[in-house]
Amino acid sequence: MKKLCTTLSLSTLLVVAACGGEEAGVDEDNRNEQNMNNNTEYNLDDDTDDGNDNEEDGTNNNGLEDTDPDLNDNETNEEAAGDENDEDLGEDLADDTWETEVGDTIENEGGVFTLHNRQDDIDTIETGPIIMDIQQVAAVSGELTGEMADFLETDELDYIQVDIQVENTADEDITFYAGQARMSTSTGEQLESDMWLSDHIDGEMMAGTSQSGSFFFVLENSNAEDVESVRLVWSAPHDDDWEDAGEEVDIEVEF
Protein backbone atom coordinates (compact mmCIF):
# COMPACT_ATOMS: atom_id res chain seq x y z
CA MET A 1 0.00 0.00 0.00
CA LYS A 2 2.93 2.32 0.68
CA LYS A 3 4.15 1.62 -2.84
CA LEU A 4 0.71 2.56 -4.16
CA CYS A 5 0.68 5.82 -2.20
CA THR A 6 4.16 6.70 -3.45
CA THR A 7 3.10 5.93 -7.02
CA LEU A 8 0.06 8.17 -6.66
CA SER A 9 2.23 11.00 -5.32
CA LEU A 10 4.66 10.67 -8.22
CA SER A 11 1.77 10.56 -10.69
CA THR A 12 0.48 13.83 -9.27
CA LEU A 13 3.87 15.46 -9.78
CA LEU A 14 4.02 14.22 -13.38
CA VAL A 15 0.58 15.69 -14.10
CA VAL A 16 1.67 19.06 -12.71
CA ALA A 17 4.87 18.92 -14.75
CA ALA A 18 2.94 18.09 -17.91
CA CYS A 19 0.55 20.99 -17.40
CA GLY A 20 3.47 23.33 -16.78
CA GLY A 21 5.15 22.17 -19.96
CA GLU A 22 2.07 22.91 -22.03
CA GLU A 23 1.79 26.38 -20.58
CA ALA A 24 5.44 27.02 -21.42
CA GLY A 25 4.74 26.29 -25.10
CA VAL A 26 1.92 28.87 -25.21
CA ASP A 27 3.54 31.73 -23.33
CA GLU A 28 7.18 31.20 -24.26
CA ASP A 29 7.61 34.66 -25.81
CA ASN A 30 6.04 36.43 -22.83
CA ARG A 31 8.23 34.58 -20.34
CA ASN A 32 11.41 35.20 -22.31
CA GLU A 33 10.65 38.90 -22.26
CA GLN A 34 9.90 38.73 -18.53
CA ASN A 35 13.12 36.82 -17.84
CA MET A 36 15.13 39.51 -19.65
CA ASN A 37 13.52 42.13 -17.44
CA ASN A 38 14.21 40.03 -14.34
CA ASN A 39 17.86 39.68 -15.32
CA THR A 40 18.17 43.45 -15.53
CA GLU A 41 16.30 44.15 -12.30
CA TYR A 42 18.02 41.54 -10.09
CA ASN A 43 21.47 41.70 -11.77
CA LEU A 44 21.56 38.00 -12.62
CA ASP A 45 24.64 36.59 -14.38
CA ASP A 46 24.62 37.34 -18.08
CA ASP A 47 25.82 33.84 -18.94
CA THR A 48 22.75 32.18 -17.35
CA ASP A 49 20.62 30.44 -19.94
CA ASP A 50 17.26 32.21 -20.32
CA GLY A 51 15.34 28.94 -20.35
CA ASN A 52 16.79 27.89 -16.96
CA ASP A 53 16.57 31.18 -15.06
CA ASN A 54 13.60 30.10 -13.01
CA GLU A 55 15.26 26.86 -11.89
CA GLU A 56 18.63 28.40 -11.01
CA ASP A 57 17.40 31.44 -9.09
CA GLY A 58 14.75 29.42 -7.22
CA THR A 59 11.83 31.62 -8.24
CA ASN A 60 8.64 30.97 -10.11
CA ASN A 61 7.29 33.04 -12.98
CA ASN A 62 5.90 35.61 -10.55
CA GLY A 63 9.27 36.18 -8.87
CA LEU A 64 8.17 34.34 -5.71
CA GLU A 65 10.41 31.83 -3.97
CA ASP A 66 9.43 28.23 -4.73
CA THR A 67 9.07 25.68 -1.97
CA ASP A 68 11.63 22.87 -2.22
CA PRO A 69 9.83 20.16 -4.25
CA ASP A 70 11.82 17.45 -2.51
CA LEU A 71 10.45 18.59 0.86
CA ASN A 72 6.92 18.60 -0.51
CA ASP A 73 7.39 15.09 -1.85
CA ASN A 74 8.70 13.84 1.50
CA GLU A 75 5.83 15.40 3.44
CA THR A 76 3.26 13.92 1.07
CA ASN A 77 4.78 10.44 1.26
CA GLU A 78 5.13 10.60 5.07
CA GLU A 79 1.47 11.56 5.49
CA ALA A 80 0.35 8.80 3.14
CA ALA A 81 2.54 6.27 4.93
CA GLY A 82 1.09 7.30 8.28
CA ASP A 83 -2.49 6.80 7.07
CA GLU A 84 -1.73 3.32 5.75
CA ASN A 85 0.70 2.25 8.49
CA ASP A 86 -1.72 0.14 10.53
CA GLU A 87 -2.86 -1.89 7.53
CA ASP A 88 0.69 -2.41 6.33
CA LEU A 89 1.73 -4.00 9.63
CA GLY A 90 -0.59 -6.98 9.24
CA GLU A 91 0.43 -7.37 5.60
CA ASP A 92 4.09 -7.54 6.58
CA LEU A 93 3.34 -10.28 9.10
CA ALA A 94 1.20 -12.31 6.69
CA ASP A 95 3.49 -12.02 3.63
CA ASP A 96 4.83 -15.27 2.20
CA THR A 97 3.49 -17.47 5.03
CA TRP A 98 2.07 -20.04 2.62
CA GLU A 99 5.34 -20.32 0.70
CA THR A 100 7.35 -21.04 3.86
CA GLU A 101 8.03 -24.49 5.30
CA VAL A 102 7.96 -25.07 9.05
CA GLY A 103 11.38 -24.15 10.45
CA ASP A 104 12.17 -21.72 7.64
CA THR A 105 12.82 -18.02 8.03
CA ILE A 106 11.49 -15.21 5.82
CA GLU A 107 12.42 -11.54 5.66
CA ASN A 108 10.30 -8.56 4.62
CA GLU A 109 9.87 -4.89 5.46
CA GLY A 110 8.60 -5.77 8.94
CA GLY A 111 11.63 -7.83 9.95
CA VAL A 112 12.81 -11.45 10.04
CA PHE A 113 10.22 -14.13 10.88
CA THR A 114 10.48 -17.84 11.70
CA LEU A 115 7.61 -20.25 11.13
CA HIS A 116 7.68 -22.74 14.03
CA ASN A 117 4.43 -24.66 13.46
CA ARG A 118 1.51 -24.72 11.06
CA GLN A 119 -1.78 -26.61 10.86
CA ASP A 120 -3.73 -26.29 7.62
CA ASP A 121 -5.74 -29.52 7.72
CA ILE A 122 -8.77 -28.27 9.66
CA ASP A 123 -12.34 -29.42 9.05
CA THR A 124 -14.77 -26.88 7.62
CA ILE A 125 -17.03 -25.49 10.34
CA GLU A 126 -20.79 -25.09 9.88
CA THR A 127 -22.95 -23.29 12.40
CA GLY A 128 -26.46 -22.51 11.17
CA PRO A 129 -26.13 -20.80 7.77
CA ILE A 130 -22.52 -19.82 8.47
CA ILE A 131 -19.72 -21.81 6.82
CA MET A 132 -16.22 -21.06 8.11
CA ASP A 133 -13.01 -22.37 6.61
CA ILE A 134 -9.94 -21.98 8.82
CA GLN A 135 -7.28 -22.04 6.15
CA GLN A 136 -4.33 -22.17 8.53
CA VAL A 137 -3.17 -21.66 12.10
CA ALA A 138 0.52 -20.80 12.37
CA ALA A 139 2.91 -20.18 15.26
CA VAL A 140 5.49 -17.54 14.35
CA SER A 141 8.23 -15.51 16.02
CA GLY A 142 9.74 -12.35 14.58
CA GLU A 143 12.63 -9.94 15.03
CA LEU A 144 11.10 -6.60 14.10
CA THR A 145 12.75 -3.68 12.34
CA GLY A 146 11.84 -0.25 11.01
CA GLU A 147 8.33 1.13 11.28
CA MET A 148 6.86 -2.06 12.72
CA ALA A 149 9.35 -2.11 15.61
CA ASP A 150 8.69 1.58 16.25
CA PHE A 151 4.91 1.20 16.15
CA LEU A 152 4.76 -1.87 18.39
CA GLU A 153 7.55 -0.51 20.63
CA THR A 154 9.37 -3.84 20.63
CA ASP A 155 11.95 -5.62 18.51
CA GLU A 156 10.62 -9.14 19.22
CA LEU A 157 7.17 -10.60 18.63
CA ASP A 158 5.69 -14.10 19.12
CA TYR A 159 2.20 -14.71 17.79
CA ILE A 160 -0.38 -17.16 16.46
CA GLN A 161 -1.74 -16.33 13.01
CA VAL A 162 -5.22 -17.55 12.04
CA ASP A 163 -6.44 -17.22 8.42
CA ILE A 164 -10.21 -17.46 7.99
CA GLN A 165 -12.76 -17.45 5.19
CA VAL A 166 -16.41 -17.16 6.24
CA GLU A 167 -19.66 -17.26 4.25
CA ASN A 168 -23.28 -16.51 5.04
CA THR A 169 -25.35 -18.96 2.98
CA ALA A 170 -28.71 -17.69 4.28
CA ASP A 171 -31.25 -15.66 2.32
CA GLU A 172 -31.26 -13.15 5.16
CA ASP A 173 -28.65 -11.07 6.94
CA ILE A 174 -26.86 -12.86 9.78
CA THR A 175 -24.58 -11.48 12.48
CA PHE A 176 -21.46 -13.54 13.14
CA TYR A 177 -18.24 -12.07 14.48
CA ALA A 178 -15.65 -14.25 12.77
CA GLY A 179 -12.92 -11.75 13.66
CA GLN A 180 -13.65 -11.85 17.39
CA ALA A 181 -12.55 -15.33 18.39
CA ARG A 182 -11.15 -16.03 21.82
CA MET A 183 -8.02 -18.17 22.02
CA SER A 184 -6.33 -20.17 24.72
CA THR A 185 -2.95 -21.79 24.20
CA SER A 186 -1.27 -24.93 25.55
CA THR A 187 1.18 -22.56 27.26
CA GLY A 188 -1.64 -21.18 29.44
CA GLU A 189 -2.45 -17.86 27.77
CA GLN A 190 -5.93 -16.51 26.95
CA LEU A 191 -5.88 -14.05 24.06
CA GLU A 192 -7.93 -11.96 21.67
CA SER A 193 -6.76 -10.93 18.22
CA ASP A 194 -4.73 -7.74 17.99
CA MET A 195 -6.97 -5.10 16.42
CA TRP A 196 -4.05 -3.09 14.96
CA LEU A 197 -2.45 -6.01 13.16
CA SER A 198 -5.50 -8.05 12.16
CA ASP A 199 -7.81 -7.66 9.19
CA HIS A 200 -11.42 -6.56 9.66
CA ILE A 201 -14.37 -8.83 8.90
CA ASP A 202 -17.76 -7.17 9.22
CA GLY A 203 -19.85 -9.02 11.79
CA GLU A 204 -23.13 -8.05 10.11
CA MET A 205 -22.97 -10.31 7.09
CA MET A 206 -25.47 -9.67 4.33
CA ALA A 207 -27.24 -12.61 2.71
CA GLY A 208 -25.08 -14.66 0.36
CA THR A 209 -21.81 -12.84 1.09
CA SER A 210 -18.36 -14.08 2.10
CA GLN A 211 -15.30 -12.45 3.64
CA SER A 212 -11.77 -13.47 4.59
CA GLY A 213 -8.89 -12.18 6.68
CA SER A 214 -5.81 -12.87 8.79
CA PHE A 215 -5.89 -12.47 12.57
CA PHE A 216 -2.92 -12.21 14.91
CA PHE A 217 -2.94 -13.32 18.56
CA VAL A 218 0.15 -11.87 20.21
CA LEU A 219 1.72 -14.08 22.87
CA GLU A 220 2.57 -12.16 26.02
CA ASN A 221 4.13 -14.72 28.35
CA SER A 222 5.31 -17.57 26.14
CA ASN A 223 7.20 -18.35 22.95
CA ALA A 224 5.59 -19.39 19.68
CA GLU A 225 7.86 -22.43 19.36
CA ASP A 226 6.51 -23.79 22.68
CA VAL A 227 2.82 -23.69 21.67
CA GLU A 228 1.63 -27.21 20.87
CA SER A 229 -2.10 -26.50 20.47
CA VAL A 230 -4.68 -23.71 20.62
CA ARG A 231 -8.38 -23.57 21.41
CA LEU A 232 -10.59 -21.18 19.44
CA VAL A 233 -14.11 -20.10 20.49
CA TRP A 234 -16.67 -18.02 18.53
CA SER A 235 -20.08 -16.88 19.79
CA ALA A 236 -23.11 -18.30 17.98
CA PRO A 237 -24.46 -16.41 14.95
CA HIS A 238 -27.80 -14.66 15.35
CA ASP A 239 -30.49 -13.12 13.16
CA ASP A 240 -32.02 -9.65 13.12
CA ASP A 241 -34.24 -10.55 16.06
CA TRP A 242 -31.16 -11.50 18.09
CA GLU A 243 -32.22 -15.12 18.09
CA ASP A 244 -29.45 -17.71 17.80
CA ALA A 245 -29.13 -18.92 14.21
CA GLY A 246 -26.58 -21.62 15.04
CA GLU A 247 -24.35 -23.00 17.77
CA GLU A 248 -21.27 -21.61 19.49
CA VAL A 249 -18.07 -22.73 17.77
CA ASP A 250 -15.45 -24.31 20.04
CA ILE A 251 -12.54 -26.13 18.42
CA GLU A 252 -9.07 -27.41 19.34
CA VAL A 253 -6.22 -27.12 16.82
CA GLU A 254 -3.07 -29.19 17.39
CA PHE A 255 0.20 -28.56 15.60
Give a verbal description of the structure:
The chain is 30% helix and 30% strand. It folds into 2 domains: 65 residues, no CATH class; 160 residues, Sandwich (Immunoglobulin-like). Helix 1 packs antiparallel against helix 4. The strands form 3 sheets. Strands 1, 2, 3, 4, 5 and 10 form a 6-stranded antiparallel β-sheet that branches. The protein is of the alpha+beta class and 255 residues long. It contains 5 helices and 12 strands. The chain is elongated. The N terminus is likely disordered.
Secondary structure tally: strands: 12
Distance between the amino and carboxyl termini:
33 Å
* Percentage beta strand: 25-35%
Task: Give the second-level CATH assignment, the architecture of the largest domain.
Answer: Sandwich
- Uncertain residue segments: 1-67, 78-83
